[in-house]
User: What shape does this take?
Amino acid sequence: MSQISNTMIRASAGTGKTFQLTNRFIRLLLYGAAPERI
Assistant: This one.
């Protein structure tokens, strides 16, 4: 798995924060990260 750095999302309501976090979580799982380590 390639190194993926930390991310901070600061945005107002309705700008896609949950969408971005969900995509990141799924991408980490696809790269082989263990769910308990995310």
User: Anything to note?
Assistant: The mean pLDDT is 89.
